[in-house]
Amino acid sequence: MKKAWIIFWSVFVVVLGGFGFLFWDMWKEGPMSEGEKAKTAFSAYATKWKNQEFEGMYEQLSLETKASMTKEAFISRYRKIYEGIEAQNISVEPLYNGEVTPGEDGKISFHYRLQMGTFVDPISFTGKATLVNETQNDKKDWYINWNPTFLFPDMQEGDKVRASTLPPKRGEILDRAGRRLATSRVVVDIGIHPGEWNESSQAGKNQVSKLLQIPTADLTSIVSANAAKSFIRIATLSEDDQRIQTLGATKGIKLQKKQVRYYPYKEAMAHLIGYMGVMTAEEYEKRKEQGYHSSDMIGKTGLEQLYEEQLRGSAGGRIAITTANGTEKKVLAVRSAKDGEPLTLTIDAEVQKTIFNELAQEAGTAAAISPKTGEILALASSPSFDPNSFVTGMSSKEWKQINENLQKPLLNRFARGFAPGSTFKPITAAIGLETEAISPQDTMSVKGLHWQKDASWGNYEITRVSDYGAPVDLRKALVYSDNIYFARAALAIGEEQFVQKGQLLGFNEAIPIPFPIDKSKLYNTEMKNEIQLADSGYGQGEVTMTPLHLALVYSAFVNDGSMVYPSLVQGEKKEQYWKSDVIPADVAEAVKQNLLSVMEDPKGTGRGARVTGIRLAGKTGTAELKQKKGELGKENGWYAAFDADHSRLLVTMMIEDVRGRGGSHVLDARIKRIFSKVLKEGELVHSAS
């Protein structure tokens, strides 16, 4: 019994203590004060402000504020301003200085601190909030008495916020002599004002149609589809275009000047320099975190694309409060633009133009280097296009003409690999001499124009152009360009050594320059059989080379067997050689002497390109492209040549579809003119680096 009483009193004390604590807590808290209610209301408002929930913010405004501004106007104003300045990471911190209590007027006021990021720099300010206690929708609470200072302290009713981007000046692209390859110029947008245009005379409309080569019906359709606009761009002309004066005097035509990227060398440099254009939605998504805007121009191809970050610089910006009429009252944030850095190339613009002009009306490509320094002097592709058309705007008709051109002017041929034909034979010669599979003195006797190793080849035969009726040694094989000799040389070398030595020369390896160029290949997947190996010996089979790689391999014949390290951009550190001692010095010299014979021997295939006063060493080539033996395939003509005595210029060139036009001899006069202009007429400028 005693034990039961002990349990009863224990439970009683615990329960009594619990009730006591509960009543004490309730007594201690008491009803929430008006100050605490106001703080709670502002805290909820600050959270919505931080999250840019403008509709919810409006619901917490006082009746007086709501009477002066509709919900739509409030939301629109905040959204327009915050989107314009790219407001982000907003924080609103109340600054309660002591106890918060209503004043004599029944209102509660306190300060707050706002911070936000913008597209320029962070902005912060201290504002004052006033709350009133009133009933809305049967709910009595504290509501914010809003005014324009909540946007920014210096704003008044009617004021606006102007956000403007300060674009950087894009870095120029220069050649080795400082010539501008990519720069800027002023152009004039020709536009239609729909209202005035509809009132203009038919004669005026016809005149515009004739001057701009736009059918009158098209102009009418353009105006109808864009009637709400005040300026409809229909063309862009250079500032000095003589048509501008007449167009400007025509009713309904408006002129607007703007600065755009400009490419002075036009088609000659298009594939190398590239061009700029407006970003796509996909490009914007990738770059918006870097400060880009959806309407920004960006490098689309070539060096403009590859060096976008260096050339672009970084945009600045300015955020200011203005009056209703646009007068600036206060600058809230400003950051100067940082101009892009220039890009100086090893390219010689005049050499490039000379070589490109020699490719005119042809589909082809060429590369030129300084074989001693590795400086790339020219990389040309033909046919081409005017990159300025992509900047100023191309009509659908112009785009169709380019895109449907069978010669593919948009294709960058200098970045692609092609069968090198007989220009590959010196490479086989060098490998053969080094491996002792052949020697300069050894001769080969073959009668007729066809040869096969044995009956296992079936109907497949190697064909040469001429039978000179005498045994052929290495010199004659290069001078005559004898396919059979080099097919047999490749077989004597053997697949393993042929592939191994070829890879040491940079096959299947990226050329170390900041420009995407195909890797040269000895085969696609494997050397399938002896026939393919034999064909590879004279640059057929599946062998492909880019003109630049071919030039770099030939530089080994200038540099005692070492391939020079290429450079496209001045100032970039590099080694002297890309591939050191890949050919024994005596072998390189022996091949070089034979290449001199190709150009100087009366029977040499390169004799048509000889230049008086300049000793050229080189090799011609005709690559036959066909799917199977016996069919008449397409032929590409090749040349690889350098000045043997001073080694200032090495040029490789390929022209497509030369069958029936003389094969590689289509290039004779072109190569001759290039070396004459560049070396004899002093066109080549020494690097400033």
TrEMBL record:
Lineage, top-rank taxon, reads Bacteria
Q: Which residues form the NTF2-like N-terminal transpeptidase domain?
A: 37-159
Q: Which residues form the Penicillin-binding protein dimerisation domain?
A: 166-330
What stretches pass through the bilayer?
6-24
Its keywords, alphabetically, are: Membrane, Transmembrane, Transmembrane helix
Q: Which InterPro entries match?
A: Beta-lactam/transpept, Beta-lactam/transpept-like, MecA_N, NTF2-like_dom_sf, PBP_dimer, PBP_dimer_sf, PCN-bd_Tpept
Compartments it resides in: Membrane
Predominant subcellular localization, coarse grouping? membrane
Recorded GO cellular component terms are: plasma membrane
The molecular function GO annotations come to:
penicillin binding; peptidoglycan L,D-transpeptidase activity
| Gene Ontology terms: biological process | cell wall organization; response to antibiotic
Q: Would the keyword Cytoplasm turn up in this protein's UniProt record?
A: no
Residues forming the Penicillin-binding protein transpeptidase domain are 364-674
What family does the entry list? Belongs to the transpeptidase family.
Q: What is this protein called?
A: Penicillin-binding protein
Gene name per UniProt: pbp3
